[in-house]
Automatic annotation (TrEMBL):
One of its GO terms (biological process) is cytoskeleton-dependent cytokinesis. Coiled coil: none annotated. InterPro entries: DCTN3. Transmembrane segments: none annotated. This is Nuclear distribution protein RO10. GO terms for cellular component: dynactin complex. It holds the Pfam family Dynactin_p22. It comes from the Eukaryota. It comes from Venturia inaequalis (Apple scab fungus).
Length: 203
């Protein structure tokens, strides 16, 4: 069974794939599809090709990345050139080649269905990304405030440690020294009193 598409249908399918790739490319580089979203609505093949060329020119004029790539391609054309395909080997017989193709036939249909599913995936909205970008200054300000608060907390901890150390030295150690001094004076006074009592008793 011959599964080859008619030339007209193949041309339309090829144009649709090119427009789809152009949409993705513009979304990646520019964040939108304003130049290419209405190309496929025109049934004229020549008009669609001209619109795609115009969209590519506008995209290349706005994107620095494409300008750099075009400059590299003009200076070093071999960098972006596809590698030459390896020479075909004639060692395999026709039956072996056919069996290899038939063995991979199921994977072809799987890949084809996956590609069709990717084509149905809608582009993510850019509003959420724009909101995140708009919040960037506030996030930086909050980060700065958080850093200042952390530094202030660190300074308060240092002062608290100094106060606790001073309180311990004055009220705990100082009181202990006073108590020891008073105890020593009381013992000395007690000894003097006893000596005086002994003298009085002897007299």
């Amino acid at each position: 069974m011959d599964n080859t598409l008619p030339p007209e249908e193949l041309l339309v399918h090829t144009l649709a794939l090119l427009e789809w790739r152009l949409n993705r490319l513009e979304f990646l580089l520019d964040g939108g599809v304003s130049q290419t979203k209405n190309i496929g609505k025109d049934g004229n093949v020549l008009s669609r090709i001209q619109k795609m060329e115009h969209a590519l020119q506008q995209l290349s004029s706005k994107s620095d990345t494409i300008k750099i790539l075009l400059n590299l391609q003009s200076r070093f054309p071999h960098l972006l050139a596809p590698d030459a395909p390896p020479p075909l080997s004639d060692d395999l017989s026709q039956n072996k080649k056919l069996s290899m193709v038939l063995a991979e036939a199921t994977s072809f249909s799987t890949v084809s269905s996956q590609l069709r599913a990717l084509g149905d995936v809608s582009l993510p909205p850019t509003d959420s990304f724009a909101k995140v970008v708009a919040l960037q200054p506030r996030m930086e300000e909050l980060s700065r405030i958080q850093y200042e608060q952390a530094m202030e907390i660190s300074e308060l901890r240092r002062r608290s440690a100094i106060l606790v150390s001073r309180w311990h030295e004055v009220f705990i150690l100082g009181q202990g020294r006073c108590t020891a001094e008073w105890d020593s004076k009381l013992r000395n006074a007690e000894r003097e009193v006893r000596r005086e009592e002994i003298r009085n008793a002897q007299d």
